[in-house]
Amino acid sequence: MTKDDLKIALSWVASEGWNPGIDDVDNFYIADPGGFLIGELNGKPISCISVLRYSAEFNFIGFYIVKPEERKKGFGLKTWQEAFKLIPNQPAALDAILQQVNKYQRFGFKPVYSHLGYQGIITGKISSDVRDLKTIDFDQLCRYDRRYFPSYRPHFLSTWINQPHGQGYAIINDADLVGYGVIRKAMDSFKIAPLFAENEDIAEKLLLALATYSEGSTIYVNVPNINKAAILLLEKYQMKNTYECVRMYKGEQPNINLHNVFAITGLELG
Fold it and tell me: Is the pLDDT of residue 18 over 90?
């Protein structure tokens, strides 16, 4: 899939109601340029899927869409099968809408926990100990990110934190990075993704700092349902849970402390 093909895929994502970021063609493509597949029928695109090969231990499936008029014709299965040719006998993960969980179980995926989608408007403020993410040592950022994401991803982060319509913040304590987050402009709102922090107080400061970038518009956040502190924090600011997806794994689940994950990077990215 070329970047132009990815633009098509993102338009399908938007039509499904998933509200992609306006810089997401570049944001996503850098994660694995060879991992985005598009299916064609008579030379016209009808399906897509992504297989982001972060490492041999962590691959993430997303962007699995067949155009509505071509569904129930077997094209979805063919698209799925092509994707798994890229990761033979390797573990994989995905986020499934509730109606599709049983289908993915037939392919060997097991439900582990859920991601809850919250939205709302937050009046932000920037505390004195919050720093612009671009001022943080990049190697230190990558090491910290690896604590709460299943793979080291410097190429992705380099693009993610420098996207034109986004902003990141971090907090340093005694020279240690103790939390960071990024917010980006989406088609009709803003998205915080990710937000990793050592405790709720740090997460709250980062949440409020990131909210200043939204300028009073709606913010979306996806949070693991087992992080009760994150849920309480979002609900403290009257954010509402509007949807749920199920994180499913085929093979070994990564060893990540989700109680420090106050927002994931995305349902398309892992």
Answer: no
Torsion over CA: 160, 163, 169, 174 (sign): positive
CA distances to 49, 66, 96, 175, 263 from 117, rounded to whole Å, are 22, 23, 13, 33, 10
What Å distances lie between residue 133 and 112, 122, 123, 189, CA to CA? 32, 20, 20, 21
Statement to judge: residues 176 and 203 lie in one domain:
yes
Q: What range defines the domain where residue 222 resides?
A: 118-263
Q: pLDDT value at position 191?
A: 98
pLDDT tens digits, 75-103: 999 999 999 999 999 999 999 999 999 99
Same domain, 83 and 152: no
Give the number of other CB atoms < 10 A from CB of residue 27. 22
pLDDT band at residue 251 under the 50/70/90 scheme: very high
Beta bridge partners of 266: none
